Amino acid sequence: MATTEAPSVTALREVLRLHTVASDDPDRTDPAPFVELHAVLRRHFPRVHEAGEVVDVPPHGLLIRVPADPGSPTCDADPVVLMAHMDVVPIGDESLWTHPPLAAEVVDGMIWGRGTLDDKGQLVAVMAAVESLLAEGLAPARDVWLSFGSDEEVMGTCALAAVELLRERGVRPWFVLDEGGAVASDAFPGVTRSLGVVGVSEKGVLSLRLTASGRGGHASRPAKGGTRRPHRRGHHPTGAPPLPRARLPPRRSRCSGAWCRTCRAHCGRSWLARSAPPSLLARVLVAAGPEAAALARTTVAVTTLSGSPAINVNPTSVVAGLNLRIAVGETTAAATERIRRVVGRTIDVEVAEAHEPSPLSPTDDPAFALLERTVTTVFPEAVPVPYVMYAATDARHFTTICPRVYRFAPFRMSAEQRESIHSYDERLGVQDFLDGVRWYRTLLDGLTHESVAAAVAG
């Protein structure tokens, strides 16, 4: 019971009760929940706001600079940026939830609610860790910037605005850390240990609109061949991608090679422990199920389909929406051209949205080593490994000012919990949340150790 009464848990539950949903059109976003969320953060984390410099970022985001200890050898070194986002996706069909999605109930040691995993748990954990540091009269060894976006779920402009504010100030972060991987159990076939998967890149995003035209008319008199359906050749009805088998480019292969070496060292007699080259790893991942396959190739999903307005009318046009996640080493232009070749000239292919894959961040680097040490310190059962994240985050915008952009949420997550993200029954263990707070505090303490090491080396 004591853990459920922890101040950080109370703060998280208050934040979860706020329905902070962003809209594609900023003018349609209700600002009130975001304003209240800012107030909750000020109330629960007063030292962060008193010691830090708080900058409002449009539309409803925050940048908070927590200044370094002036006596630290690295007080003038490049800062660290810790990220999260305040907005959440809609709750969907509330009847599917075991517990109300905006009640933040604690049941059987779990906090239930929209945003526990994506991404309010991380937001509050970061704030709680910094607050605890300041409460002890300490300060970070180098400046720490907290960047909290307000429209990540709709791929909005808040993170871009934050990057521009930092750029104008001449800020070049040592590393950036956003949501992404987690301490994942049962993540890959044959791997029995938990993995602390740290994202070193993320796949690109490509949304296509496929349109086929026809003559229409009464359904009792279908024309020969009917309307040329975009799904007829463009995609399989199940959504299986009309794309080549996985091919890992050289830099991606190096990332997979590091993944293999780590697992061979720590995961015993699993299939990864054998000397499988990255090219074979890619093919094994494709066959291992959707979560693993998404790591190794460009994927395509059919997300929307519209045709006739009536069941007895032949459509004059059929429109299918495709969402592709572009593998590192490929481009949105090449993927678009592949789709055009598959569907043929009679289907119009329009690009609705396109974002290239993010650059790969280094894994043979002191910043990544610090993240690895922090993972093993707080989660000794987990093996830290790099991976390419298949979802899109605000972190991709920070690659323009920093070469070390990592993606990791320091929470234990089962496969069932991971599936609840953007779905129903999203939940986070109370102790797992508190361990996440401890992880961020350990990371902040680790910055001090890095500072001492730098002073000795100097």
Automatic annotation (TrEMBL):
GO terms for molecular function: metal ion binding; peptidase activity. Residues 281-344 form the Peptidase M20 dimerisation domain. Residues 226-236 have a biased composition (Basic residues). Residues 211-251 are annotated as: Disordered. InterPro entries: Bact_exopeptidase_dim_dom, Pept_M20A, Peptidase_M20, Peptidase_M20_dimer. Keywords: Hydrolase, Metal-binding, Protease, Zinc. The keyword Cell membrane does not apply. This is Peptidase M20 dimerisation domain-containing protein. It comes from Janibacter hoylei PVAS-1.
